[in-house]
Sequence to fold (193 residues):
Amino acid sequence: MDKKEKLENLNKKWFEECTCELKKTATQAVPGDGNPNAEIVFIGEAPGRSEDKEGRPFVGAAGKFLDEMLEEINLKREDIYITNIVKYRPPNNRDPSPEEKASCREWLLEELKIISPKLIIFLGRHAMNNFFPELQISNAHGKLLIKAFKGMSPKYFFPLYHPAAALYDGSMRDILMADFRKIPKVLEKIENP
Fold:
């Protein structure tokens, strides 16, 4: 069974088994999407309105900005895999609660196990704090983090501000673009330490 089939089976399993309270208010689950053999996995916070409607992550305004940034470093959606820490849209796009994050955590960890990327890129503080609760995004963004987690092969992490933050605050756009342009060098560093 290839990674694509494993991910499809994983999603089918979690559509049934996920106990996240957000299931009650969301239109549908929004599983990860993209290349199952990707070297890079992007992890966001939670689906928004557009994602809830389409059933795919990062298809709204933040997703369009992400596509622009990927193009800037010669990558396309087909080259990466993208997912969220929570698979259902929180009402009114509020932050997901610790309980909601916890109920979707195994789903995310199993996705990462199947894909086994070289690099995990956090889009925003919620994604980063899911793995590094002690860090602040304002200090950690644009820096390579190296940490081994039990039962997980990837150990290289790269936090970025969330693309939506740059849409709301224009001054963040340049910071996010500068951090994003570091990604090819970070990958190179991982491959040739």
Observations:
- The domain at 3-191 is CATH 3.40.470.10 (Uracil-DNA Glycosylase, subunit E).
